[in-house]
Amino acid sequence: MAKLLLLLALAGCQSAPLQAQKDPLPSWNDGPTKQTILGFVRRVTTEGSADFVPIADRIATFDNDGTLWAEKPLPNEVYFVFARVHEMAARDPSLREKQPFKAVLENDVAYFQQHGAKAIVELLVATHGNLTQEQFAAEVRRFLDTQHHPKLNRPFTATAYAPMLELLAYLRANGFQTWLCSGGTIDFMRVFSYQTYGIRPDQVIGTELKRESKVIDGRRVIWRLPAVESINDKETKPVGIDLHIGKRPVIAGGNVLSEGDIAMMEYSKGRQGPSLQLLIDHDDAEREFAYQEKDNVSLNAARQQGFTVVSVKRDWRNVFGAQPGAKQTSSVEPAPMDRRSMAVPQFLQVAR
Amino acid sequence: MAKLLLLLALAGCQSAPLQAQKDPLPSWNDGPTKQTILGFVRRVTTEGSADFVPIADRIATFDNDGTLWAEKPLPNEVYFVFARVHEMAARDPSLREKQPFKAVLENDVAYFQQHGAKAIVELLVATHGNLTQEQFAAEVRRFLDTQHHPKLNRPFTATAYAPMLELLAYLRANGFQTWLCSGGTIDFMRVFSYQTYGIRPDQVIGTELKRESKVIDGRRVIWRLPAVESINDKETKPVGIDLHIGKRPVIAGGNVLSEGDIAMMEYSKGRQGPSLQLLIDHDDAEREFAYQEKDNVSLNAARQQGFTVVSVKRDWRNVFGAQPGAKQTSSVEPAPMDRRSMAVPQFLQVAR
């Protein structure tokens, strides 16, 4: 009896051994991909194994849009930009005649096709800047609490992929730090990263606005300036990882769309010792969205460098979790989404 | 018996309750300062207390130079800069005739008094740049393994303050994340922060060089460019905290010297809920170094804003830990330190 109590009590201290008992990845179909993941984690966490990685070095970094949650027809943060523009125009009608706001309000895709990244950055800084961090976080929270994904018809945070949520929990149960490393803005992601992914705000890496600290009404605050400090994408993702973590990831996860995660995976691959790279291929139009990449650059990199390709169609038993009940919608109307919206490559590019 | 085993096993899961039994801060003299610290931690960690702070929000940030380890006659990282200059000149004698290297090699303080910050930044980027992160870390490690502090005659990492090491351990035992937030460079501190302070590399915030990721010999690396990306000091410390942590510190610790930590303390003070700011006053010439600040700006801020002032003389029973045996010295000769070196305010300013 004493022994039993002792074992129970000890088991309570360390979830990993318990986790190992049952299938930690029920939303993943059995097959080579799932076996690669389970086998890798077993090898790097087994003391005495040649591939053993100490807990201090168990770093896993994941892209967000298209890797942890959906990114079609447009990345979720773009809908936040739209909602902000509609709100700002409601408060200041003069914006209705001012570009690039006018183009958003009239869903003028041609304008963005013509003015590309410049117009997008203008929108980003106008909707994300000129606020304190606290004010911005409140805006994001209100958006997430009241808006729905236009195609998947569920709260944006419910567009998270069930298999990836299981993977994140499985990695943490095995001593891994799980980090976000996305082209989305760091302060947008920090608002929901913990509740949605179990990822703490200090473990989020993303695109940044310039900020300054100043005293307003006797209180020192962080003020968001209407200017981009750095874009976290492609070759700059390893720099963001170095800035925030200071170690190479043992596991790096990204997806096929805009070559955005190749450098991060190469950075992981380049570490001394074992590493695993997961590249999600969106090939399931029925359960999610099917999309490829120009010239298959990421898939070719995976073939050449030995990244593990995850097929949504073959490897995922479920794509999304149970759909939460629809929440009340706010007065903010999201901009109408239609097929034309999908023809804005620059939008996707920059918003990643 | 079963009960006892169970209790023992459970106790093993959570060190905080055990810690609380004995004095967690033996190197602190009993008195108002120590009582303020112990009382604050008790209040914010007691469930049901009006001041209870959830573990997720238990953030403590500490300056490094003069707060966690000595900074006189010059900040420790400056001796690394000197050592690098001597090494570089040994490899490339032409540097002996080139400023600001010449001034370092000849200990020409007047030059730095004349050229100030510009010369310092030139030295910083020349000694810290044009390396991969791995190469730079190896240089720092070699410096720390072979060089000694010129006045305290011990390895630089042994200039850490015993009372602060106890405070860091005490805070972690009570669920706090302990962060470094210093004007020193992030990658210099990351090399020793874990072994010296128990602070992980991803919880270090500091001054940064520009970096890029590129492929060298088929391997993606982080390349350090010879240019400053950002200085982490004064008003920019809250920005660094926001970038890396995304939350306001519940506890912020700094010291009197150059007004470098006032903004960080104001940022902590400005949080919703309880907070504690510790300002170390170096007033003990016998056991360490005694130095004040022009116009007492930091001490005045402490009085006006209610920061807790820590007197080295009154509040610390011990300043340093037991002195480790001297390590073998390398071929690198540190630049001779003398009284004149202490007359380089710009040096201290920028190197903080």
UniProtKB/TrEMBL annotation, chains A, B:
InterPro entries: HAD-like_sf, HAD_sf. SUPFAM superfamilies: HAD-like. Residues 1-20 form the signal peptide. Keywords: Hydrolase, Signal. GO terms for molecular function: hydrolase activity. It holds the Pfam family HAD. The keyword Hydrolase applies. This is Haloacid dehalogenase-like hydrolase.
